[in-house]
Write a structure and sequence with these properties.
Blueprint: H1 11-33, E1 43-44, E2 55-57, E3 63-65, E4 73-79, H2 86-100, E5 108-114, H3 122-132, E6 137-139, H4 143-152, E7 157-162, E8 165-170, E9 174-177, E10 183-187, H5 193-204
Parallel strand pairs: 4-5, 5-6
Antiparallel strand pairs: 1-10, 2-3, 4-9, 7-8, 9-10
Domain Thioredoxin: 30-205
Signal peptide: 1-31
Keywords: Copper, Signal
Length: 205
């Protein structure tokens, strides 16, 4: 009879076993290294050093700043009342997003800032914004202050002659503030009302 000897795993098998065990131990760590899903559908600009406030007049002549809307999510959009498609689409979508939020929608303030104060008088602004939602607020300022504000928001606009009149090219983004008055998200024009509502719900939670 041959003497009994203990079984010794071949070196190659031992290495494979150690690698398998090591890989299994690393799985939880690797899972923790996966990139987190984006917090918002829009562009997360939390901590941005621009667009921190505004100082504009409402149709009644009252000066409005961001502090007036503390406790609310604020959607701010630059546009003009004679805009043929972008502005009506943006405001209609904002109204739909607000409706999708149900009771939470009462904590959403939409602010429409005109880049055409020459034609967008207080009465015109009031009639225009209330046609989409009575709670929407149209704000205005002088030509010089409007230009300075747009620059502060990194927004762009320019007057484009059209025969005997003119139109306005402008940035088609919506700036969103959380209830503490911090700029958090920039929503793109190609996003849906459902995506707007999802981001607003996150800010209001």
């Amino acid at each position: 009879m041959y003497p009994s000897t203990p079984f010794v795993r071949p070196p190659a098998l031992r290495r494979r076993g150690l690698l398998a065990a090591g890989s299994a131990a690393l799985l939880p760590l690797l899972a923790g290294c996966q990139p987190a899903p984006p917090a918002f559908n829009g562009i997360d600009v939390s901590g941005a050093d621009y667009g921190k406030d505004f100082r504009l007049q409402d149709p009644s002549g009252r000066t409005r700043t961001l502090a007036d809307f503390k406790g609310q999510a604020v959607l701010l959009f630059f546009g003009f009342t004679q805009c043929p498609d972008v502005c009506p689409t943006a405001l209609a979508r904002a109204a739909q997003a607000r409706a999708l939020l149900g009771a939470l929608g009462q904590r959403v303030q939409v602010v429409f800032v005109t880049v055409d104060p020459e034609r967008d008088t207080p009465a015109v602004l009031q009639a225009y914004t209330s046609a989409f939602d009575p709670s929407f607020l149209g704000l205005h300022s002088t030509l010089e202050e409007t230009a300075a504000l747009a620059k502060n928001f990194k927004a762009h606009y320019k007057k484009v002659p059209t025969g005997s009149s003119y139109t306005m090219d402008h940035t088609a983004l919506t700036y969103v503030y959380d209830p503490a008055g911090r700029l958090r998200v920039v929503l793109r024009h190609d996003q849906s009302a459902e995506q707007f509502a999802q981001d607003l719900r996150r800010l209001l939670a």
